[in-house]
Amino acid sequence: MPQLTKAQLIQQEGRIALALEALKQGYFTSVTAAAKSYDVPKSTFQNRVNGVPMQINHRPPNCKLSIIEETTLVEWILSMDQRGLAPRPDSVRQMANLLLAKRSDSNSNIQVGKH
Description:
By secondary structure, the protein is an all-alpha fold. The chain is 57% helix and 0% strand.
């Protein structure tokens, strides 16, 4: 099956939300009928019925920085760039490790990887 574009995914999720609402209201007696009527994949619709959120909303388990920490790091990089001091990859890695160290306890030695 070909990959969907972001716009297509948003449209599909909208149709899934409508199908979920129609199923809850009792317009359909089965998941299959609702999925077929709203032209959404049955397996995806079944997952939403079971409470499984979109994959795009999930954060991979190997991400060490939180979203707030990543945003802070990006803001720091942009701030340095505005001052004419573009940070080198080693500087960015050191700043990311500093953010991790501030969050974690002193016993753990968690550091970001090369990429």
